[in-house]
Here is the input.
Amino acid sequence: MEQLEPISRMVAELSHLPGIGQKTAQRLAYHIASMPLEEVRNLATALWQGRKSIRYCEVCGNYTVSEQCEICSRSERHNGQICVVRDPRDVIAMERMHDYHGLYHVLHGTLSPLDGIGPNDIHIKELMDRIEKEPPDEIILATSPDIEGEATATYLARLIKPKGIRVTRIAHGLPVGLDIEYADEVTLSKAMSGRTAM
Amino acid sequence: MEQLEPISRMVAELSHLPGIGQKTAQRLAYHIASMPLEEVRNLATALWQGRKSIRYCEVCGNYTVSEQCEICSRSERHNGQICVVRDPRDVIAMERMHDYHGLYHVLHGTLSPLDGIGPNDIHIKELMDRIEKEPPDEIILATSPDIEGEATATYLARLIKPKGIRVTRIAHGLPVGLDIEYADEVTLSKAMSGRTAM
Here is the structure.
């Protein structure tokens, strides 16, 4: 017996999702086939209606259900600072620290020539237009400290600094709680070169 | 900023799936939010339409899109044998060996008093009705060799044997390719007690 066509189609669609291989997709598909109709409807509706209702904030590119995201539309946010991040998940992470009161700009990716992702494939033009219209005091580059994140930060710094805007990069160093013994060399060297006076 | 409501709903629904925790659900939800509309539509449709089109075979309880499953509706299958399995995935596994030509009966679960699953919660009545209507020569109990599987097999054997039908249990022993050194004691003891003449 071949696998039923509806199950094969579920497997095909599910296995497109990140981290879901053929085996997991199959397990999920068989589980979904055995779920009450009502629950599957809720799942499918949540995915489709959810996706349909989500769009990019017209200012910063963060996810939103209206024109502007919750952060851009809040007047108490300090609009002299723009923190540039790779994707909306990073905004959530930054907001969790309850310590930053400026605005964001979501790039939706980082430069990665090997994957064919150049400056026009991520929201750099939107950032430059935004800076042009209303120049901030500071741009904080908060892309990850990996090759793509560093390349993107360097690229942006070179683009923005000539406009006389202060450009900063989040600090690299030892994560809190990590024993020096277990730190990798690059992190340790970044921590050394970024040392501050006590 | 709180998580967007549509994303929270996706996370809630996705985390109901087996093996998908809060973190994975969140990663998936953010990925789905960034997927092209068309792809999300395909995913949601595959799940919902797929689930809607799948029902239980009226004879054996296997998944099907018509009244009877592919196996029950095929005339060349030997209907003197019924192989009893826990769920439709087991049918696929059995069919992969291309060696069994009888019919199946899918229980949709195994007895598990601790989880409150008794004889009326799985398709035992359907099996008994089927045996009553058209008694087979042999019932092969192919539930897994775990506590629930064994309990279910014992329960069914006690129910069916008095009807004069041959009841067999699939063999337990060393899986092919496993070094004896690495076999657990229970498997090894089953392999010893189930030894056959050469």
Remarks:
- Residues 5-53 of chain A form a domain with the Helicase, Ruva Protein; domain 3 fold (CATH 1.10.8.420).
- The first helix of chain A runs from residue 5 to 14.
- Chain A touches chain B through 58 residues (CB under 8 Å).
